[in-house]
Amino acid sequence: MTEVRVAGVGLTRFGSHPERTGRDLFAEAADRAFADAGVDRNAVEELNYGNFMGALAEHQGHQAPLMAEAAGVRCPATRYESACASAGVAVREAVRTVAAGDADVVVAGGMERMTNLDTEGATEGLAIAADDLFEVRAGVTFPGAYALMARAYFEAHGGSREDLAHVASKNHENALPNEYAQFRTEVSVEEALDSPPIAEPLHLYDACPITDGASALVLVSEEYAAENDVDAPVAVTGTGQGTDRMALADRTDLAATPAAVDAATAAYDDAGIGPADVDLAEVHDCFTIAEVLAIESLGLAEPGEGIAAARDGHTTADGDLPVNLSGGLKAKGHPVGATGGSQIAEVTRLLRGDHPNSEHVPDAEVGVAHNAGGTVASAVVHVLEVAE
Amino acid sequence: MTEVRVAGVGLTRFGSHPERTGRDLFAEAADRAFADAGVDRNAVEELNYGNFMGALAEHQGHQAPLMAEAAGVRCPATRYESACASAGVAVREAVRTVAAGDADVVVAGGMERMTNLDTEGATEGLAIAADDLFEVRAGVTFPGAYALMARAYFEAHGGSREDLAHVASKNHENALPNEYAQFRTEVSVEEALDSPPIAEPLHLYDACPITDGASALVLVSEEYAAENDVDAPVAVTGTGQGTDRMALADRTDLAATPAAVDAATAAYDDAGIGPADVDLAEVHDCFTIAEVLAIESLGLAEPGEGIAAARDGHTTADGDLPVNLSGGLKAKGHPVGATGGSQIAEVTRLLRGDHPNSEHVPDAEVGVAHNAGGTVASAVVHVLEVAE
Q1: Rounded-to-integer distance, Cα A352 and Cα A362, Å
Q2: Does B267 touch chain A (CB under 8 A)?
């Protein structure tokens, strides 16, 4: 097993790109990743690409060869799909490929176009991440599903809409300096509370937006980095994946996400660390309640205590454990097939010290990225550490 | 690196299953694979699943968790999509996972439902495997694309519709005893020639059908097989993948499939064998011309000589190199997301001696499986060998 290093990261601005195709977006992210890495694209041995709903949004399946062209690489290219965890899974397999010595240079990332669909189209597109037979046909949409999870959490542990509003406000605050964020606007707790309801107890500002965007990472073996003078100070030291039953009705506890617990346990074991070692986290806050469930699943808060973490300041930028310094899905945006790669790019920038929010975490050495699909039927967790 | 063994294979009947869901089909294939393997499903550590157009055919993305449920396994589950090579890629990553020692027991396979769509829906669904911007919107469909490849081949090397009709007739003959085949009917060369044109020079019997079906394989490490008394006499000794430009217009030679050459070269290198060692092959004959291109890319025929291989009897059941003893996509059927797994299941049965066509290859020790996506923008090749 060799150590896997992040040689470079690239993102597009997250937001609405009505004039851009998916391949345009991924090309831009890849260009930035190669420029950041200082690695020649001819060195790339494999491309792992995440995309969720391209068949619906762009009438385009089989996107991996297209994205290899867009990225200017000529190598085996594979698409991964795991709903909103698509890029997380793509990165995970890239990490395992490099760790196993099967390749020295792999590009991983993802892309999603969503804003070209109207609201009904985007809602229907996202719905294919739920169980069509037993959820979608019964009227379940994702705001509704996460609202059920929030209600279950409140019933099990207490908590309030105001607690969730603190998560939203924190993540909007974090997004302010992030040049890639979709929403660089402050949202006060009061504004979040006053936003219109979408599925009680969730209101509009509890939800992430519809987003276009792409992410790309250049991952290399430590040997390749050393031999080629590639500056790659951050290592991916742990990777883990978990899978749960798809439909909420088939689960025993809607106030927990065991797939993420499984993924985190595996990732920590792989890295040889525990939650107490973590200095910062990027987690999958597609809804505010999802951030609460994520930090509990990662062991960064005890069950029932995650709800107060933002309100009490533990997870704010200057708290003891900053969560979603990027702005999170909530404010940075959520191009679903790109998000898992974006989270790892942001953790990398934070650990390298070149993120606009790095000033809040000058001594951070260990970061975690948590990417989830559907109502966390799928989860992928990565541990990143400063290596040198 | 440990040796990867095929402990068990499972297939559904290929054909039309209007009364079945995708999860029903995959559950049946998985049940058969576990029964064949004699491996407890609680031992499964990962599930790799191929599916191409479920977002369109069943309004169902994020299928991997559903298929883990269907297969009765609780482990990380990942969907792979590479058009008609989706299951091939899923198997390839499973093979690499076991070879690297990351897991001892992995299930890989795939599923596709297609016959629930009408002809227009199926044609549009398959079209997402081509370049939407530069092919599909210009009116290219897959029969048209492969017709262009056939014309280019005829122009470069000669050949005739009659040569292709021999491929069709051979594969229908091979499918006769196969209990899983969609078409167990003889088709004479004359009947193939007389079938209606779909895109000259291709006629109806040059094309594979629209098919529902599923495939599943239980792959284990040789150590696991030995320690658990699992009878797994066939090893996957080589895996390779290749990627080409997506659109035909971006390629220099439509009479060749370099992605498959790359995949075959890598797979042979991995196995430490060459084309001369191959005793039988299952190749991706979505159209008759595709079989010709496949055997040339695999090095089983020289460029320009593949066209005569069926007519001259080299690739017939009792020829020196039987190709598509299963019936191939042409007669066995082509549930696109399942096909790559099915091919490996059939090679395994042939090498084990328990395939209804094994009598034609009593001494076979090395088999190759060739799975392609789109117009071979993606290709995956596996080498299987009798290990004990």
Answers
A1: 9
A2: no
